[in-house]
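Hi R.,

Here are the chain sequences for the assembly we discussed:
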Amino acid sequence: MSIVFEKPHALSDVGFHYCPGCTHGIVHRLVAEVLDELKLEGEAVGIASVGCSVFSYNYFECDMVQAAHGRAPAVATGVKRANPDKVVFTYQGDGDLLAIGTAETIHAATRGENITVVFINNCIYGMTGGQMAPTSLVGQVTQTTPYGRKTETQGWPINGCELVSQLEGTALAQRVAVNNVKNIREAKAAIKKAFTYQTEKKGFTFVEVLSTCPTNWGLSPQESLKWMEENMMPQYPLGVYKDKGAKGDE
Amino acid sequence: MSEKVLMKGNEAIAEAAIRSGCKLFFGYPITPQTEVSAYMSKRMPQVDGLYLQAESEVAAINMVYGAAAAGARVMTSSSSPGISLKQEGLSYIAGADLPCVIINIVRGGPGLGGIQPAQSDYFQATKGGGHGDYNLVVLAPSTIQECVDLTYKAFDIADHYRVPVMIMGDGMLGQMMEPVSFPEHDDSVSFDKSWACDTTGMKRKKNIVNSLYINPDELETLVWERQKRYDLITENETRAESFFCDDADIVLVAYGTIARVAMNAVKKARAMGIKAGLIRPITLWPFPEQEIADIAKTAKSFLSVEMSTGQMVYDVKLAVNGKCPVEFYGRTGGVVPVPQEILDKIVEISKKL
Amino acid sequence: MQKEFIISGFGGQGILFIGKLLAYTGMKNDYQVSWLPSYGPEMRGGTASCNVIISDDAIGSPLVTEATEVIAMNGPSFVKFEKSVAKGGTLYYDSSLVQPTPTRDDINYVGVEATKLATEMGMGKLANMFLVGKVLKESKVFELDVVFEALKGLVPAKKPELYDLNKKAIEAGANL
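And here is the predicted structure of the full complex:
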């Protein structure tokens, strides 16, 4: 019997705890495939953050460090500075990266910290049960914005890629989505580019992945993909915001 | 043993850390410990080490967490308000069983407080300033030479027991200069770092550094196991020094620089014919309970002298365990007591005996 | 020996350096020494002071409250630390900057026109060393040669000429 499909080696043989239809699983797989293809599993240390992906230390086969809420880029800095030739990545959600951990994110970027940040943006706090995230859309109903996010009280969403792309230390800032096969392939290419740039010591690499949260959005997985396309993509346009490796962008 | 040099406490701690094999230092400026950072920024590049100024104390302690997780000898330094910010990281470091060294050059508080010497962070340091069942090992040098010796010791305790170790001084200790020499550091002792996240190289199973255990039974087991290590630390590492305690009626308990002021007062009391003695805890956690309990068998009164409104005095009371009265004398807010005021208190107590 | 100094003046007058020279000389001659500066905004704002203890025995409190010698290089320091001189101790001051208003009869007052004389000799920045010269001669804490030997260890390697200048200033002060 020939094998036509298998789990990436860098993904552990542990069942995910994610909800049905959640796109974390896809992104985990993409990161693991990239680690396999670039032969980085044995060279990598991953940093798990606080949020739905808190258990990601169980899912990747490389060494994993679990970080306090928002501190993953600082923890990654410590790991990286202790082992400058190894590959270090963080896997963070929107609350972790752009609320409580904004300072750590911005400063890791501006230092040109040679790490890769995989940023899952689903516009909501998932683990705690669906509260407003810094990336929640204007008007979005969450557990803590029952009347919709109002700019008068809660202000506007933060655009991560646009923000870090302004900083000299950022080598790559790209926003991708995992809503269809084409975009999933592009997402993988972006993650692969980020890790490649890290091995080339180009600087801070940042891949924002638009993701879904069917459970807390109160939608089916299929409806969630549609909601992402119709509501998130206008606020968070896909694309490359900075690429120091691209011609003319050095 | 190196030649004697005249050095500030802050600088001596930094140099001792480097000689202990500390290769990474993550700092953030705050008076009165900034010389640690300044010294590190100058010396680390000379020894292929790293000095990095973090964006906050919160980030600095989490960088320490990362470097410690990767198996490196690592240190950070701050003063009271900054140490408050580091409490989150300290709890995680303790919970993940990571070794590291934290310097706290204490200043007056609460809040922004002042910048002059204080000991008002005793509770925070010894009773677990962060959340959860954990302890820091807390070392309290009283001379610049002891800053060096205890810094050497701190890294070894940290690595041996996989615990965070705090060196707690005060602004006076950090800023003052005394002659100091740097003993040859014993690099022959090696520590098990097989748990470190320094990549698998595809040659071993992956390591996880973590403090999250959702299952209560699992968490309880781990917490109790850590507690057993704390018991070992208590058994092996508790340290105190005592002076004139054999026949003492009144026993002062003081640590750090104030122990020196108290010593002056004890000598003056002795000259007046009052049988005073002094116990100087060198480890604040574990606290030298047994040493105090032993002396409490013969002493008539204890006097805890602190630069706070009375924090260590509770530990003294627990150790004395009702065998005799425990009195307190303290100045706070950055005021350093002079020997005379302590002597006055000794005389006052002697009249009651 | 047990000598306890309070040295005080404006920032920039080399106050902390006087203390360092005394402490360093003590250390080089196997005494126990301590040097404790004032620090923080006070130092940045204008006044600088330090406490130095030189002793045969282990030093307890590094704080000096009863100084055998106070060196005051400005008026506020004279006023502030006059009461901190131990009975029979000496208050040295720069009489070109301090208008003395002595209030005690149990201590000695020694004024030296340090800044004026140093400036006349083209060494205005070394007034502190003039005063040190006088203090060394009167207090007999150290022989001059011993201090000069120690001075070698404190002069920055990049500015060796500072050794001769400082030595000259100390000698001039001692000969007043």
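The mean pLDDT of chain B is 97. Chain B has two domains: 5-189+197-237, 240-352.

Let me know if anything looks off.

Best,
T.
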